[in-house]
Amino acid sequence: MTDWPTHEAAWREWREAMRGSRMHHGWILAGKAGLGKHDFALAAARELVAEEGIPQPSGTHPDILILTHLPKDDKEEKKRDEGKPFEVKRNIAVAQIRAMQQRLTTRPTIGSRRVVIIDPADDMERSASNALLKSLEEPPVGTFFLLVTHRPAGLLPTIRSRCRMLRFPELPDAQIARQLDAEMPGLAMAERDAAIALAGGSLGAARSFLKMELGGVARLMQRLAHEGDPGFALQASLADAVGARPDRERMRAVLDLGRTTLAASLHDASPERRLALIDAHQALVELAAQAPTYNFDPGLLVGEIASLLARAAGASEPAHG
C-alpha cells in the first residue's frame, strides 16, 4: 500500500473512537478520488476485526466484506479471473447489498467483529442505498460499515445521518511529486509537473493522468476554457483525443480533468469570467454525478464537456440540454 502522510488525522480520530466505550457502527470516508481512502478502509478494517489471542490471516480476511463494481458481463468476469484488465458495471446493485445482508445473518468467521466496505458508496443504485439503510438502522451486533465516497452529497441524507464522517485532505504538490518520482524514476519533470498541476491534490488523479496519457486531452481542455470553440474544431479534436470507446475509468478521469481545468482557470479570471467558470464547473460536477447512473453515449458526453468548457470562455454556443 502507498504510505499516506495525510492520513494522520484520520488515524487519530479512528483510533480514539476504537478506544471509546462504544465504537460507531457506520463511517463515511469522504474526499477526492485518489487520496487513499480505500487503503485506509482496508487497514482500519483489519485493526477493528483483530482481537488479542486470535490469529489473523495475512491475505483475504473472511470477516472483511468488500462490495464494489462487478465485471460488466461473463466475458469481463473471465478477464478478471485471468488477472487481466476488465470493464465493470456502472453501479453497485441491490443484489450485492442483499447478498451481503444474508451473510450478516451468520456469526463472524474468526472473531466477534465484522466489517463491510462499500467502495465507491456513491455508485450504489437507489434501491441498493435503500436496502443498505435497513442495515444501518439496525446493524447486527459486531458489524461495522465503512462507506468510501468521493461525493458524500450523493449519498442518501438518511445514510449520512446514520454515519460518522471521516474526511481526507488533499495532498500537497510536493508530496505528490515525491511519490511520483519514487514510482516512476524515468518520468520527465515537465510531464510530472503537468500531471500535478491538474491533479487538484489527488495522487490518484496524477497517476491516472500519466497512465492514460491525458496530456493531449488536458491541452485541448485548456484551449477550450480560454479560447472557446466557435467552429467546433476543438470539440472534434477533444473527441479524437479521448477516443471512440473510452472505458469507465478513462471517462471518469476525463470528467475530473474538466473540473480541475475550470478550477485552475479561476485564479487569474476577471470577475465576469469567474461567474461563467463557476457555473460551468457546477454543471460539470452535476454531469459527473449523473454519469455513473445514466447510460450516456461517450461521444455525446465528451461533446457536453467540451461545450461547458467553451461556455466558460464566453463562447456563444449553449451547452447541450
Automatic annotation (TrEMBL):
InterPro entries: DNA_Rep/Repair_Clamp_Loader, P-loop_NTPase. Transmembrane segments: none annotated. Gene3D superfamilies: P-loop containing nucleotide triphosphate hydrolases (3.40.50.300). This is DNA polymerase III subunit delta. It comes from Altererythrobacter litoralis. The lineage of its organism: Bacteria, Pseudomonadati, Pseudomonadota, Alphaproteobacteria, Sphingomonadales.
